[in-house]
Amino acid sequence: MDDDVTHGTAPLWPQPVLDLLARDPDRPVFEDGDRVVAAGQMLEAVARAVAGLRAAGVGPGVGVALDLGVSPEAFAVTVGSFAVGARVCAVPPLLTPQHRTDLLSRADVALVVDEDRLADLLSCPPVTSVVAAGQPAGVARVTWTSGTSGRPKGCVESYAAMSAAWAAHPDRWPPAVAALAPRLQRYLVFGTLGSQVMLEYGVLTLAAGGVLVAARPPGFPDALTRHRATASVITVGRLHQLVRAQREHPRDLSTLRALIVSGSPLEPVRLAEALDVLGPVVFHGYGQTETGMIAMATPDEMLADPAVLASVGRPPAAVEVRVDDGELWVRTGAQAQGYWDDPQESADVFVDGWVRTRDLGDVDPAGYVHLRGRARDVVIVDAQLVHAGAVERVLAQDPAVAEAYVTGRPDDTTGEAVHAWVVPAAGRTPDPGALRAHVARVLGARAVPRTVSVVDGVPLAPSGKPDKSALQPAEVIA
C-alpha cells in the first residue's frame, strides 16, 4: 500500500473500505428493494462521488454536510466524502428548523448534500482511482447531537482516530465483535448512514462478508421478516416492543441472529426476558459518541453466567477503563478529540488523553463494566441524550410557570422518557398541552415530556435542594 494512504501501521480511513470493495467486485454489498449493488458497482459510485465532490471544490479539510437517509447512493457519497479528506458532518434527523439552521451556520461547510443533490454528484464521470486523501491530524467527522441540550453539539474525530477503529479489520476485532461478525450476513440499516453506530456496524458487515439491507419501510418486526434480516441495531425501547409483539403475535424470526442493543440502560430482568423470547441473539453493549464502543456482552456470556446480565460487558483490549471517584473514564486510540467550537466543554470532558463518560460505575474482578447511575442530568430517549436542564429552561419560559423540574423514567417505547413537574406562578394555571407543544417547537420531538404534572411544590432533599427522585409521574398522556 502507498505511504500516502497509511498512518503508521494503520491504513488511512476510509482506505480499508475501498480495499474491501475492490477485492471482490462481483460480491453483493448493498440491497435496496429489488436492487442489488455489487462491490465493483459501489466502488464506481464512490469514484463518481469523489469526482462530483472535487468538482464542487471539496477536498482535504473542507466541510461537507450530509443530510441523507439510507441507500446505496448515500453510502457511496458518505465513503466518497471521507475519501477526498473532507470534514464530514452528518445532519441528525428530526432537527427543528432552528437547530438545523444553527448547525449549518456553525459547522463551516462548503457543501450540503441532501437527497436532491445526490444525482448531481453521481452523474460525474468517475475518477480513475480512489485513494484516501485525508490528513491524519485533520478532522474526519463531526457527529452532531439532536439539539436536545438546547443547541446541537458536535463531537470531533480525526482521520487518525477513525483509522484506529476496529470495524474494518478482522485482526483487530475484540472477542465479542468476532462472535458477532459471522451473524451479519444481512445487516438491516435504517434511519441514516450518518449515524455513527449504523455506519460502524455497516463497515463491520462488509468486512465480515455480509450485505447491507435497506429497511423499506423501517419498523420491527415487519422489516426483519420482510428482508430476512440476520442482524440489526435496536434501541432499548424498540427491543421492549419487539419482545412484547413476539409474546402476543409471534412472527417468524428464524433468520435473526443478532440484535445490537444501543441507547439507554437495559435492566437485567428485561434483558433476560429478551433472551428468553427472542433466543440467543441479543448483544448488550455500552458506548458513547466520544469513545465508540466501550464494552459488549455476547448472548453466550449472558446465558452461561446470569451475573453478566447486570453488566454492559467487558471492554476490548484496545479500550482502557478506569474509575475515578465513582465515575468511569475511558481511553482508546479511536476516541474523539473534543467538541466543535466548544473549548470549555472539551476541556471538561477530554482530560489528559482520557474521556469522562459522566456515567457512574465500576469494573468487577472479571473485567465486566457495571453502570450505577449518571453524573449529569440527562434522559436517554431513543438512544439520544435529552438534557433535563434545557427542557426545564424552556418550560420556565411560560409566564404561568414559576418553577420547572424534569427527570427521566424507564419507558417501554423509548427506553427512557422525559417527565416534567411545574409549579404555577401566582394566580396562573399552566396548560400541560401548551407546554409540551412549546418544548416540541424549541427542542424537538424527543425532548417533549411524556407527562406534565402541575404541583404545589417539590420535595426537598436533606441538603435543601429539590429532590426530583421523589417526584412521581402523572398518568401518561397518549
TrEMBL record:
PROSITE patterns: AMP_BINDING. Coiled coil: none annotated. InterPro entries: AMP-bd_C, AMP-bd_C_sf, AMP-binding_CS, AMP-dep_synth/lig_dom, ANL_N_sf, ATP-dep_AMP-bd_enzyme. Residues 22-340 form the AMP-dependent synthetase/ligase domain. Residues 391-465 form the AMP-binding enzyme C-terminal domain. Residues 459-478 are annotated as: Disordered. It comes from the Bacteria. Pfam families: AMP-binding, AMP-binding_C. PANTHER family: LONG-CHAIN-FATTY-ACID--COA LIGASE, NONRIBOSOMAL PEPTIDE SYNTHASE PES1 (EUROFUNG)-RELATED. This is AMP-binding protein. It comes from Cellulomonas wangsupingiae.
